[in-house]
Design goal:
Layout: E1 12-13, H1 16-24, E2 34-37, H2 43-50, E3 55-59, H3 62-71, E4 79-81, H4 89-92, E5 98-100, H5 108-117, E6 124-130, H6 131-138, H7 148-154, E7 157-165, E8 170-171, E9 178-185, H8 195-207, H9 213-216, H10 218-221, H11 242-255
Parallel strand pairs: 2-3, 2-5, 3-4
Antiparallel strand pairs: 1-8, 6-9, 7-9
Helix pairs in contact: 1-2, 8-11
């Protein structure tokens, strides 16, 4: 039996219905390979295989790797003893694939930013994360939870908060509730602005989210930007859509 390890943030899902529902989030992508991040004890793995997915599992915990190899011989050569955050995805997948998992909560944001790095190869990413992180990912302008990760992810993905999961369905139970999300690649192929500067504008704006953009963006635009008279600079960052942040980046391109 695999022992959950606190150092790895492991909370093993034990509810079969929830696992089946997570596997079902990829029902529209049967034609694509799937990478499961953190196979654990294979609760989600079994339903992904039952659904007919061409499955690869990446797992850092060697105890789990041994367990998965013993219980899922059909995955011979496709259980990778590796760290998803460090693995070279492009060497493993030369064509589009999907990502899913019951993600370790302490690195879930890093996982999604890695997915973002490979957005042109990952049309769909789903899975279970801490409820608060799920709410931030799916939040829209005007929400208190709308922030940096909301904008950066939603620039490229449509995010759905699918359902909440009680802490009692895990071993050991986490101290927080969880949620299942699905991120589906949108039709945007280019931001139309400098992508690095876009990220800088978004991060700088939210670093002082209680201030108007006229004040929070001075580290990027300086004190005397003539465009500060535009109405958009009267707003606070949580009021802006992705498109408006792109417009701000166009302004920043003229003064940086």
């Amino acid at each position: 039996m695999v022992r959950p390890k606190k150092s790895l943030g492991q909370h093993f899902l034990k509810d079969m219905d929830v696992a089946r529902q997570i596997a079902g989030t990829l029902a529209a992508y049967k034609h694509l390979p799937v990478l499961e991040v953190g196979g654990g004890t294979g609760v989600l793995t079994q339903f992904l295989l039952e659904a007919g997915h061409d499955l690869t599992v990446v797992e850092l915990d060697m105890e789990s790797v041994d367990y998965l190899e013993q219980h899922f011989p059909v995955l011979e050569g496709k259980i990778l003893a590796d760290d998803f955050l460090q693995m070279d995805i492009s060497r493993r997948f030369s064509s589009p694939f999907c990502v899913t998992g019951n993600y370790p909560y302490h690195i879930s944001s890093q996982i999604f930013f890695k997915v973002l790095e490979h957005k042109d190869s990952i049309p769909c990413c789903s899975g279970m994360i801490q409820r608060e992180v799920a709410a931030r990912l799916a939040a829209g302008p005007g929400s208190r939870t709308y922030g940096i990760i909301s904008v950066l992810i939603q620039a490229w993905y449509d995010v759905e908060y699918l359902f909440t999961v009680d802490e009692k369905v895990f071993d050991p139970p986490p101290k927080v509730k969880s949620a299942v999300i699905r991120m589906t690649r949108n039709k945007r192929t280019d931001l139309g602005c400098d992508a690095n500067l876009f990220r800088t504008v978004v991060r700088t704006s939210f670093n002082q989210r209680r201030k108007t953009l006229r004040n929070s963006l001075k580290p990027v635009l300086g004190n005397d930007c003539p465009d500060y008279s535009l109405p958009v600079f009267d707003k606070r960052p949580e009021q802006l859509s992705v498109e408006q942040f792109i417009e701000l980046t166009h302004i920043a391109e003229r003064f940086t």
